[in-house]
Every structure is written in structure tokens, then in C-alpha cells.
User: Which sequence fits this backbone?
């Protein structure tokens, strides 16, 4: 038991940062789902009202920028974990 | 294979005098500013001096570019569009050209936390100064709620990291692509591999980021300013009652 704990501790001490980087990159899942839903809704809206395509595009891009932010935070955290920690 | 990547991620210091340290991004920022000023001067002396009633191609492009920012500023920040239009245009031009300089092999000017923070703080300043100018003392009510203060403080942080992160990720992807291309060239020494692959992939990743991020920065700035200069409703309850009375009067 003690051996296992020391093994896990050693593993976390050496490769913990890389493991954390991998977990941080999972933020992409949420961002991907969110952006997919937003784009799908925008397509629906355009199909329903093609003349409003300009306004829809503006709102879609803003929403995508917000949704993308979480993915970018994850990327930054994983980059910092790989190259700085 | 990707060992060299860690050196590319954070900007290298070119000049370090202790109190003054200048990295690669700052230098390409200077180049971008000089290039933008030079282009503006040339356009001022050539196209704008020969302004015609029947527009030429260059004039049409300039009009479209200026109108694009002025119109969206007009829609969102009514009274202050004279200030916000040029600001968003300038910021967008700096971001766009600061990223596009990557095509010349220099480090993008925006891939530095300082540059992003400076742009975000400019926006932060505009939001609060214009909010006070429009609503005067009533704006103080906005700060009475602690949640509003936290939201306000999060704005520059999120704008900084959004810009920095997306430009940096584009740059990192391109560095990885270059490393892979060099490795491919070692295996398959045909000149087409290095030249054509790089020529196809670079604009794909760089141009997309440049235009999207500058557009997003400009429209986010306008949205936040619009939110700040909204006039808060004075006494909503009484207004509702009045409406009801009016409707009753009309019905009678």
C-alpha cells in the first residue's frame, strides 16, 4: 500500500503537470458543444428568415467569441503547465 | 520532435537594460505602427486628395472600410460614435496588421500579453469614462452592486486572454506545422513539400484569426460601451401605472 502511494506521488511529481495539461485541454469539449449548438441555431434562424442573415451573423460571431474563450483558457492553462511548470 | 516549440511560445528579449526590456513582439509592434502610419499618409496624399464624385476602386474600398466601423458605432453608441468609430477602427487595424505581420516571418505583435492588456485597458477606460459622461451621478448606482464591480473587473481580463490566447494558439499551430514540414522535407526531399504546404497552410490559420479577432474585439468594445451608456429607467412602477391609465382612458 505504502509502495503504491509513493509510486502515485512520484508519478504526480514528475508527470503531474502533463496530466493536468491533458485535463485542461478537455475544455474544448464544452466549447465545441456550445459552438455547435450556436451555429445550428443560427442556421435554423437563417432558414426561417433569410433576410435577417446580416444581424444573425453578427450575433453568431459574438456568441462564438464568448464560447471560444473557455477553450482558449484551457489551452493557455495547458501551455503554461507544459512549458512553465 | 517538438522540443524547439517551448522557445517559440514566449517572446524572446532582444534588448534588456534592466529597467527597459524589449522583446520581439514589441519590435514587430513598432514596425506595424510605422507601416500603418505610412500607408495612411500615402492614402491621404493620393486617394483622399483626388476625391471624386464618381468613385474609383480605392475610394470605394476606403469608404466601405470607414463606413463599416462608423455605422456599427453609430448604431450602438449613438452620441459617442464620433469617438468610438475611429477607436474601434484603429484597434481593429492594429490587431489585424499585428497578426498579419506573421506572414513576413516576424513574431505577431499581439502574441504578447502586454499588447493585449494595453488594448483591453483602453476599452476598459472607454467603458467607464463614457458611462460617467452619459449618466453622470446616476452611474454610481451601478457600482453599488458588488456583483457589477466583479463583472466590470472581469471584462479587461477576459478580453486580454481571449486575444492573447487565440493569437498565440494560431502561432503555435503554425510553428508545429513548420516543424512537421521540415521533418517531411528530410524524409521526402522535394521542394514542393516545403513551399506549397507552407504557402497553403499559413494564410489559412493566420488570415482567419486576424480578421475574426479584430472584428470580435471591435464589436465587443461597442457592446460593452453600449451597455455602460444605457440610461437606467427612473421609476418603472409609476410608468407602468401611467400606461395602464392611458390604455383605460383610450378604451373609455
Assistant:
Amino acid at each position: 500500500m505504502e509502495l503504491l502511494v509513493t509510486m502515485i506521488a512520484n508519478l504526480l511529481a514528475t508527470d503531474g503537470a502533463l496530466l493536468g495539461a491533458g485535463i485542461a485541454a478537455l475544455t474544448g469539449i464544452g466549447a465545441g458543444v456550445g459552438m455547435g449548438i450556436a451555429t445550428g441555431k443560427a442556421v435554423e434562424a437563417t432558414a426561417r428568415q433569410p433576410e435577417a442573415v446580416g444581424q444573425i451573423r453578427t450575433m453568431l460571431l459574438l456568441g462564438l467569441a464568448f464560447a471560444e474563450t473557455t477553450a482558449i483558457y484551457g489551452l493557455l492553462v495547458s501551455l503554461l503547465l507544459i512549458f512553465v511548470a | 520532435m517538438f522540443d524547439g516549440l517551448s522557445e517559440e511560445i514566449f517572446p524572446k528579449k532582444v534588448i534588456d537594460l534592466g529597467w527597459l526590456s524589449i522583446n520581439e513582439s514589441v519590435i514587430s509592434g513598432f514596425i506595424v505602427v510605422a507601416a500603418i502610419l505610412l500607408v495612411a499618409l500615402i492614402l491621404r496624399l493620393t486617394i483622399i486628395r483626388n476625391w471624386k464624385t464618381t468613385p474609383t476602386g480605392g475610394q470605394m474600398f476606403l469608404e466601405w472600410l470607414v463606413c463599416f466601423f462608423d455605422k456599427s458605432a453609430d448604431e450602438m453608441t449613438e452620441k459617442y460614435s464620433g469617438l468610438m468609430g475611429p477607436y474601434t477602427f484603429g484597434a481593429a487595424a492594429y490587431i489585424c496588421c499585428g497578426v498579419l505581420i506573421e506572414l513576413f516571418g516576424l513574431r505577431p505583435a499581439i502574441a504578447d500579453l502586454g499588447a493585449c492588456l494595453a488594448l483591453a485597458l483602453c476599452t476598459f477606460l472607454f467603458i467607464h469614462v463614457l458611462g460617467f459622461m452619459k449618466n453622470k451621478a446616476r452611474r454610481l448606482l451601478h457600482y453599488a452592486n458588488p456583483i457589477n464591480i466583479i463583472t466590470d473587473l472581469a471584462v479587461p481580463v477576459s478580453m486580454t486572454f481571449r486575444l492573447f490566447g487565440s493569437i498565440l494558439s494560431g502561432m503555435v499551430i503554425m510553428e508545429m506545422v513548420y516543424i512537421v514540414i521540415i521533418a517531411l522535407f528530410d524524409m521526402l526531399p522535394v521542394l514542393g513539400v516545403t513551399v506549397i504546404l507552407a504557402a497553403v497552410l499559413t494564410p489559412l490559420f493566420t488570415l482567419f484569426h486576424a480578421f475574426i479577432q479584430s472584428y470580435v474585439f471591435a464589436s465587443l468594445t461597442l457592446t460593452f460601451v453600449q451597455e455602460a451608456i444605457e440610461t437606467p429607467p427612473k421609476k418603472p412602477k409609476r410608468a407602468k401605472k401611467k400606461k395602464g391609465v392611458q390604455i383605460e382612458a383610450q378604451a373609455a
Notes: Chain A is about 90% helix and 0% strand. Chain A touches chain B at residues 58, 61-62, 65, 68-69, 72-73, 75-76, 79, 82-83 (CB under 8 Å). The two ends of chain A are 29 Å apart (CA to CA). Chain A has a mean pLDDT of 86.
